[in-house]
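F.,

This is the one I mentioned.
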């Protein structure tokens, strides 16, 4: 028996008192939110700062000014990652809300209001959801209060759903969270009453437009109704109708997303750090305790009555499903931590519901509920350490930041259009003084010029090459992909990559990069705007250029891995890989681990280009000569007057002109038309006669009343309730995806490549040996094998007259330790000697003689002319 049934005889407050308490409690919640997110801040006409937030402002401006007037939800954005589809792989609902605000308050304030709306939505939507689920006073008010406490969670701000995460730029997630909670309440009510799927499907569709993670969680949580279903097939049909109608209603955006999902950069790395503060943040402990208490009471009471309260079990299942999705996310290519806040919120709501059931029939339930709300507000406010500061920092805007004048001057200096060469900016914590650590991602809006990095990492195929280049330019560079190893600081190696990406200007902030660029040939200082130093590369930074060497045909399978390996090769490959099976490209790849063969093409090709946001026009004096287009590849790009575009390393486009004038354009596809048709069909279903898609109510409530013992013989046999196997299997599969998914064992491949490297070294093909060894290292072999590979790579590079790279390989092997340390120390000594770094050479020689005096490598050092005593004396003199 549930707690509510145990105390059903007790009178509760009158309806009037309940309404007053609800109004007062919700009013207090809104007052608190308004006290933090003050309208006086939100309405200032400045661009919001903080985290990724300002990086979304160019998206809003592009959407509001270019896409929406054309009746489009997505299009091509040239400003970041060498171009990528905008709002095809991200969520349009918040930007639609911002566009609705813009005529009233202007774009900067509309953007700020749009980022904050989701925070204000969650508590009232939690209240409505509890009312829809049939919770009586004061549970809906306590549900809203528990959602407020959740909003104040400050741990892990990049995970989503909270005020802190909204301030870091995850405002779309906050929209999705509130709508998902509303869906849970609505779908529970409609299913329990045998209603039509129309309204819950519409809410689920809008949730999908707000955030993909939210729609996955909310939609799959509805599978709960299969538990205990008397007619599982009917329930399955109802759930399928719900999912189908929601999919159709959101089809104009969802179908193109799914059709082109394969052309994104997946997140397949685990992000969750399993600590108690992550999994059970202290702020939420009271609610977690109430949730546990409520479940225990409900399950104990179920033994004495009609069963546990299904509403509590529904919330418990939602929490379990969110946990399962978090575990399975790396296997799905999405970010695991994005599902953890749903689990936290579901448990918080469960705690609020449990407390509401306990207080339901108290005479002074209204006073008790208001006291709990006040206690929650005090608890959340007292635990908050940074929210007020973050809110003030964000919503006073970029224009109020210390470094804004310098950034504005920088943007004015770089002023141009999408037709101008791109700008590369060094990653640096110094950007924070201008309003965001990623402030440079706003340059396309403030200067009109395109840059390299952007806020939508998954939206482009160039993400890994761009981050690789950033690591060559930056002392400290970001790496959100833990399974990918990028480069070390090497501005000289970055120059050909910058030219490949059509970059002409480089903005340096650190003294190290500034000094390095000042001494490089073909690089000149343009201006100093402290803390920025602007350099210009020699060349015109063109977007279209004729290839000097024939593109080499490479099988499309595994192209991402091959493209990044091609991009990171040193020295750079002369010939590009074109990932196609088209026999019109006669040069073919012999060995994917080695540099492609360089077959020169006839020179003298002249190209003129005209670049616009979604179009590139080319004039060429020789047809049939392959042209490299320095725009990120996407299959929506089409060519008139040329074959292609083809996918060419590192995910750029290649065209072969068939006439002197060629037009490349970003096009709509059949998925767009079909998506619009699906949405029109879904809207038609919404206005169809009411009985359509209605589930016939089952007259016997769940759980069924226990019959009298003497009537058992007359009862029909109980139907088999096998429906619970489906959600149960779903949870098991999600957990298994994390626990039992086989991570590819690439040790065998690493060993094979090591053997190839050894054979190449023996044949004195030292460049090939170094490449095979580099490929073996990308397989992330065990440490013992890794040291052997590094040592062989170092020896190969040293013999290939590349001592700087050889020194890096030997030093990495020394750090790992193991049986090859002595050899690596000897190699480090020779490599650093060759580069002129005598201090590091002496350090390697000294350690070799001190720690490994009996090895052949020590004997070779002594034979080179320095004995142990000389080394020791030199070392002691330094000390």
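My design for it:
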């Amino acid at each position: 028996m549930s707690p509510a049934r145990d105390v059903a005889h007790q009178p509760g407050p009158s309806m009037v008192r309940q309404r007053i308490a609800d109004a007062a409690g919700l009013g207090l919640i809104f007052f608190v939110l308004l006290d933090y997110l003050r309208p006086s801040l939100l309405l200032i006409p400045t661009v919001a700062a903080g985290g990724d937030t300002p990086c979304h402002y160019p998206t809003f401006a592009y959407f509001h000014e270019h896409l929406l007037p054309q009746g489009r939800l997505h299009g091509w954005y040239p400003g970041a990652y060498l171009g990528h589809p905008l709002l095809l792989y991200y969520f349009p609902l918040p930007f639609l809300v911002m566009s609705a605000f813009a005529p009233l308050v202007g774009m900067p304030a509309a953007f700020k209001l749009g980022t904050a709306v989701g925070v204000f939505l969650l508590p009232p939507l939690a209240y409505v959801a509890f009312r829809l689920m049939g919770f009586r006073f004061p549970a809906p008010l306590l549900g809203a209060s528990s959602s407020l406490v959740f909003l104040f969670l400050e741990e892990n701000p990049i995970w989503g759903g909270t005020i802190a995460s909204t301030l870091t730029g995850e405002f779309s997630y906050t929209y999705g969270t509130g709508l998902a909670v509303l869906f849970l309440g609505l779908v529970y009510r409609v299913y329990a009453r045998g209603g039509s799927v129309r309204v819950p499907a519409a809410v689920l569709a809008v949730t999908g437009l707000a955030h993909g993670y939210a729609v996955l969680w909310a939609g799959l949580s509805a599978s709960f109704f299969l538990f205990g279903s008397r007619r599982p097939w009917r329930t399955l049909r109802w759930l399928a109708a719900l999912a189908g109608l929601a999919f159709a209603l959101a089809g104009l955006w969802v179908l193109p997303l799914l059709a082109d999902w394969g052309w994104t950069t997946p997140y397949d790395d685990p992000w969750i750090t399993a600590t108690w503060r992550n999994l059970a943040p202290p702020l939420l402990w009271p609610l977690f305790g109430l949730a546990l208490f409520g479940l225990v009471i409900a399950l104990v009471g179920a033994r004495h009555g009609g069963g546990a309260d299904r509403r509590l079990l529904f919330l418990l299942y939602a929490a379990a499903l969110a946990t399962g999705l978090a575990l399975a996310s790396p296997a799905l290519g999405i970010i695991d931590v994005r599902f953890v806040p749903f689990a936290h919120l579901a448990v918080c709501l469960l705690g609020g519901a449990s407390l509401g059931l306990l207080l339901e029939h108290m005479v002074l339930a209204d006073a008790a509920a208001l006291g709990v709300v006040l206690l929650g507000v005090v608890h959340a406010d007292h635990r908050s350490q940074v929210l007020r500061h973050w809110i003030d920092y964000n919503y006073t805007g970029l224009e109020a930041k210390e470094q804004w004048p310098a950034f504005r001057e920088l943007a004015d200096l770089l002023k141009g259009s999408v037709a101008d060469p791109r700008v590369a900016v060094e990653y640096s914590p110094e950007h924070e003084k201008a309003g965001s650590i990623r402030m440079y991602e706003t340059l396309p809006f403030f200067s009109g010029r395109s840059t390299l990095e952007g806020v939508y990492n998954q939206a482009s195929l160039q993400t890994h090459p761009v981050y690789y280049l950033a690591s060559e330019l930056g002392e400290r560079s970001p790496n959100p992909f833990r399974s990918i190893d990028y480069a070390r600081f090497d501005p000289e190696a970055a120059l050909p990559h910058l030219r490949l990406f059509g970059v002409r200007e480089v903005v340096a902030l650190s003294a190290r990069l500034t000094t390095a660029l000042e001494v490089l040939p073909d690089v000149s200082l343009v201006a100093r705007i402290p803390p920025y130093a602007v350099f210009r590369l020699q060349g015109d930074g063109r977007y279209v250029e004729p290839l000097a060497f024939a593109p080499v045909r490479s099988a499309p399978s595994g192209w991402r891995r091959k493209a990044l390996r091609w991009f990171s090769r040193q020295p750079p490959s002369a010939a590009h890989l074109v990932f196609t099976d088209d026999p019109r490209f006669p040069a073919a790849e012999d060995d994917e681990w080695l540099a492609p063969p360089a077959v020169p093409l006839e020179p003298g090709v002249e190209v003129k280009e005209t670049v616009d946001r979604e179009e590139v026009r080319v004039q060429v004096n020789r047809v049939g000569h392959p042209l490299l287009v320095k725009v990120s590849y996407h299959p929506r790009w089409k060519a008139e007057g040329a074959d292609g575009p083809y996918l060419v390393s590192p995910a750029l486009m290649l065209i072969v002109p068939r006439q002197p004038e060629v037009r490349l354009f970003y096009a709509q596809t059949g998925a767009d038309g079909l998506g619009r048709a699906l949405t029109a069909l879904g809207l038609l279903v919404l206005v169809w006669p009411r009985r359509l898609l209605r589930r016939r109510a089952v007259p016997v409530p769940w759980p069924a009343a226990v019959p009298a013992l003497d009537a058992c013989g007359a009862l029909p046999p109980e139907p088999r309730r096998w429906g619970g196997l489906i959600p149960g299997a779903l949870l098991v599969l999600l957990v298994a995806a994390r626990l039992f998914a086989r991570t590819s064992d690439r040790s065998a491949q690493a060993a094979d490549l090591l053997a190839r490297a050894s054979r190449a070294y023996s044949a004195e093909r030292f460049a090939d040996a170094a490449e095979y060894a580099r490929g073996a290292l990308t397989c992330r072999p065990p440490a013992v094998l890794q040291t052997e590979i590094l040592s062989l790579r170092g020896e190969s590079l040293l013999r290939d007259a590349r001592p700087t790279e050889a020194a890096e390989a030997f030093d990495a092997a020394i750090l790992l330790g193991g049986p090859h340390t002595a050899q690596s120390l000897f190699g480090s000594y020779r490599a650093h000697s060759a580069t002129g770094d005598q201090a590091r050479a002496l350090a390697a020689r000294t350690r070799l003689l001190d720690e490994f005096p009996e090895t052949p490598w020590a004997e070779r050092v002594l034979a080179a002319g320095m004995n142990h005593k000389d080394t020791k004396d030199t070392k002691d003199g330094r000390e």
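The first strand starts at residue 75 and ends at 77.

Talk soon.
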